[in-house]
Design goal:
Strand content: 15-25%
Largest sheet: 8 strands, parallel
Distance between the termini: 22 Å
Low-confidence stretches: none
CATH superfamily of the largest domain: Dihydropteroate synthase-like
Order of helices and strands: EHHEHEHEHEHEHEHEHH
Strand order of the largest sheet: 7-6-5-4-3-2-1-8
Bound molecules: (6S)-5,6,7,8-tetrahydrofolate
CATH architecture of the largest domain: Alpha-Beta Barrel
């Protein structure tokens, strides 16, 4: 089944930033409950936007969310120290979002991840920046999976994020990432593919139709998870419908359930 990592608890969103600054726990609790009801299988928590406050904000968010969380959290930070602090605070084994091949981050993350039985998002990013071709994405994924396997993280616990880039700057960026996902799934059938989708539409109007169409193409290529807003009913309906069309929904049960609950409409 497709896994939805709910993206809404992120201080880069204005209302969340205000709620965190005011320590408004009702707002945060209400938002998390809505994401869970809408079908999120992880709740992403990112406190990175208030410079100098990330550790305190993350700690407060986790204290606030934990008592009502029915699904595991995705701890989202580029800072290994924040991830270590957060990892110690959670009850359910979290998703670690993320590790990359950027030297400093990689070297700090590997000893932290060693021996932990958690799922981890592996970004196809290194010190030279974003990948420039499908082969480049594949090479980075091969390195990440190999290194994570070496420290005891099984392939089935790794969620490769191939890093979606704007199609407005280069019309090849859609095909590039789709080809890379197919190649990664051929090399490692057990690996998961995840990521944010909205970068694909950056710089273009009517972004949501682009994001929705793209997620169904990515699912055909092998994406089985994404970091999205589960309160966006249209993308959720597209994902459920694509799951069915790709043979992931026995007897069309989830699709029909979605229609009955009015989550899916033509
Ligand atoms: N890969 C991984 N993790 C990630 C990302 C990724 N974490 C962060 C991000 N990308 C995914 N999360 C979000 C959260 C919120 C929004 C977008 C991505 C969002 N953006 C509004 C916008 O762009 O219009 C902000 C508007 C507002 O201020 O509310 O809501 O790719 N592994």
């Amino acid at each position: 089944m497709f896994e939805v990592i709910g993206e809404r608890i992120n201080t880069s969103r204005k209302l969340v930033q205000a709620a965190v600054a005011e320590r408004n726990f009702d707002y945060i609790i209400d938002d998390v409950k809505k994401q869970q009801e809408a079908g999120a299988t992880y709740i992403d928590v990112n406190a990175g936007a208030r410079i100098g406050h990330e550790t305190d904000d993350m700690r407060w968010l986790l204290d606030t969310i934990q008592p009502i969380a029915t699904v595991p959290l995705s701890l989202d930070s580029p800072d290994p120290a924040v991830l270590e602090m957060a990892f110690k605070m959670v009850e359910k084994t979290p998703m670690i979002n993320s590790i990359s091949l950027e030297k400093e981050r990689f070297n700090a993350m590997m000893p932290f991840l060693k021996g932990k039985e958690c799922r981890v998002i592996a970004l196809c990013m290194d010190d030279s920046g974003m990948p420039a071709s499908a082969d480049d994405i594949l090479d980075r994924a091969v390195t990440l999976v190999g290194e994570l396997n070496k420290i005891g993280i099984p392939t089935a616990f790794i969620y490769v994020d191939p890093l979606v880039q704007p199609i407005s700057t280069d019309s090849n960026k859609g095909v590039m990432v789709l080809d890379a996902v197919r190649a990664i799934k051929t090399a490692f059938p057990e690996v998961h593919i995840t990521g944010g989708l909205s970068n694909i539409s950056y710089g273009l109007p009517q972004r949501k139709i682009i994001n929705r169409t793209f997620v169904s193409l990515m699912m055909d290529a092998g994406m089985d998870s994404a970091i999205i807003d589960p309160l966006d009913q249209k993308i959720m309906a597209t994902i459920k419908t694509a799951d069915m069309l790709l043979g992931q929904d026995d007897y069309c049960m989830n699709y029909l359930k979605g229609v009955r609950s009015r989550a899916i409409e033509s």
